[in-house]
Specification:
InterPro entries: ArsR-like_HTH, HTH_ArsR_DNA-bd_dom, HTH_MetalResp_TranReg, WH-like_DNA-bd_sf, WH_DNA-bd_sf. This protein is α+β, with helices and mostly antiparallel strands. Helices cover 53% and strands 16% of the residues.
């Protein structure tokens, strides 16, 4: 998958944080999860988790879906998107384009 320079930078910036790496790890290992449960598992606040999830979603590394629980509560579920990142001089050159 070809990525523009902006997309590549967004992915690299999103992965440049230990919390976001832990989020991807937890979602990959345990599957999709909703924000409150994921915050408990990672032992971080929901507002902080939301910020990190937003960054990951903007980089297209996670996806979300809003669902209603049996008791009528809205739950936002997140899961890891199917992505593969090969970082090499060639992929950087391709992303940046020929000067």
């Amino acid at each position: 998958m070809d990525r523009s320079a902006e997309q590549l930078l967004a992915v690299l910036a999103a992965l440049d944080n230990p919390h976001r790496l832990r989020i991807i790890q937890a979602l990959h290992r345990n599957g999709r999860n909703y924000v409150s449960q994921l915050a408990r598992e990672l032992n971080i606040s929901r507002p902080l988790l939301h910020l990190h999830l937003q960054k990951l979603e903007e980089a297209k590394l996670v996806t979300s879906q809003l669902e209603l629980s049996d008791d009528g509560k809205a739950l936002k579920y997140f899961e890891v998107a199917d992505f593969h990142l090969l970082l090499s001089p060639a992929t950087i050159t391709e992303a940046v384009g020929k000067q």
